Amino acid sequence: MPESPMETLKNSRDFRRVIEGGDREYLETIITYRLPNLEEKARVGISVSKKAGGSVRRNLIKRRIREAIRRNAELLPANEDVVIVARRGIITAGYEDIERDIRKSCGGMPGEKDDQ
After folding, report:
1. pTM for the full model?
2. Which of 8, 36, 37, 96 is the 20 to 30 A CA-CA neighbour of 78?
3. CATH architecture for residues 6-105
């Protein structure tokens, strides 16, 4: 099986470094923070606040975000750390809304028009 071009950010020090030093973009369902890294891969971390609900709801939100990232992984720039923070609106948003915001935050599909 080929190696994935994406890794996961796991420790809080990496999350904090990206959030404090990265470029931020506010979208309808997520906030993305991006910071260049010295790796050969994109590294992604996902954060969902306890305010979003119990563990079942938070894990559902994380799974939806993870799937949207997986489906659009080719858009993730290599050599960049990305932290995705779920916004309050994500609770009622559909999967299509989450995927649209992931695409926007990654620069969109080539030839794709912005739907706003």
Report:
1. 0.84
2. 96
3. 2-Layer Sandwich (3.30)
